Amino acid sequence: MSLLSWLLPRKKPVLSLEQQQRVQQLPPTPGLSETSLRKQRWVVVDLETSGLNLNRDQVLSIGAMVIEDGAIDLGQAFERTLLRTDTPLTPSVLLHGLGPEAIAAGSDPADALLDFMAFVGDSPLLAFHAPFDQHMLGRALKESLGYRLQHPFMDVAALAPMLCPQVNLREAGLDHWIRHFNLQVEDRHNASADALATAELALILFSRARAQQIDSPLALQQRLNQWLRRKQAHSF
């Protein structure tokens, strides 16, 4: 992205009246609560994107699962491919199974994102390597809807080594943790399957958190913030 593109004012998205009304009807975002981890409704999200460039690449598909009442609710699942007619079919896109037919059959990005945020409601979000998903989702919402993402976003990739310090997998990816806990994952590299795998890992980590007397979303995020600060201090 050039310096000039940063200086130029961004175009406001053009939304239909119905879409504008749906944006206005999205619920306000509360902070993390002090309710128990088991009672909290969580939305576990995974994005497939056209690449890893935070400023140029686009969200291609969204997959999400819900953790509620201490279990994965398979009846609450979300999967949507966003229609991107200008998306080049890079090896990354093809790896995720998003060929020309899948992309052409996708939904209008504004409608897909509105559907997803209605699905999320006021729940906090979980993701593996959450900063990437949070940035990409936030950018897509801003560009397509003019909506500012403010939902709490917790990083499962950071929770795992914090809650399992005896496991020497500090820089591990999702596949490493899947193998470590012997999780049975039939498919990978599509948004829904990765969201399900992340949700299964999150349930194990919540159990570890409760065993360490951490039993609320707010307490878990506070402990994670402390752990990340100590980790950063030790890196200097």
UniProtKB/TrEMBL annotation:
Hydrolase keyword on record = yes
Q: Which residues form the Exonuclease domain?
A: 41-211
Query: What single Pfam family name could you report for this chain, choosing any that match?
Result: RNase_T
Q: What keyword terms does UniProt attach to this protein?
A: Exonuclease, Hydrolase, Nuclease
Check the record and name the SUPFAM superfamilies matching this protein.
Ribonuclease H-like
Q: Which domain of life is it from?
A: Bacteria
- Whether 4Fe-4S counts among this entry's keywords is no
Protein known as: DNA polymerase III subunit epsilon
UniProt source species = Pseudomonas versuta
